[in-house]
Amino acid sequence: MAEQLTRxxxxxxxxxxxxxxxxxxxxxxxxxxxxxxxTAIHNVQPSEAVARGKRxxxxxxxIDCHTILGEGAYFAxxxxxxxxRYGGHDDPEGAREALIAWIQAMPTEIEGRRQMPHFDLSDxxxxxxxxxxxxxxxxxxxxxxxxxxx
Length: 150
Description:
This protein has 150 residues and is mostly helical. It folds into two domains: 1-39; 48-136, Cytochrome c-like domain (Cytochrome Bc1 Complex, Chain D, domain 2, Orthogonal Bundle). Helices cover 51% and strands 3% of the residues. It has five helices and two strands. The chain has helices spanning 7-38, 48-59, 82-85, 92-105, 123-136, and strands spanning 67-68, 71-72. Strands 1-2 form a two-stranded antiparallel ribbon. Strand 1 and strand 2 (71-72) form a beta hairpin. Helix 2 packs across helix 5 (123-136) and helix 4 (92-105) packs across helix 5. The longest helix is centred in the first third of the chain and has 32 residues, at 7-38. It starts with 6 loop residues before the first helix and ends in a 14-residue tail after the last helix.
């Protein structure tokens, strides 16, 4: 066997490797397409209240501090599972009331703790925001975040 890599061997390695990785890439694209079209990512269509809650989320730039489903800033807690953390699956009204009370109580003025600014939200906006959090909790996130604390 030759001690050097010949020009034709290098060309064959290049083309063979290119074809191999193109086939792997195509298989991954097909798998992703199959998964996205056959797996129910979300079973519940958003209501008008959920849409209004998302607008409250966007208008107040909550994503500047919080993450939702791993997207956003990491200054404040993950809110993709806040509904679950507040016991929303067991007691929806209790969770809604607790979330509203938490938002209204901010900032708590506790020394040395990050504080959420006070947002002057109406009762309707607070209710819509909690309904948005409830809807987000129904998304199939494949176990994201990895723990309940976010």
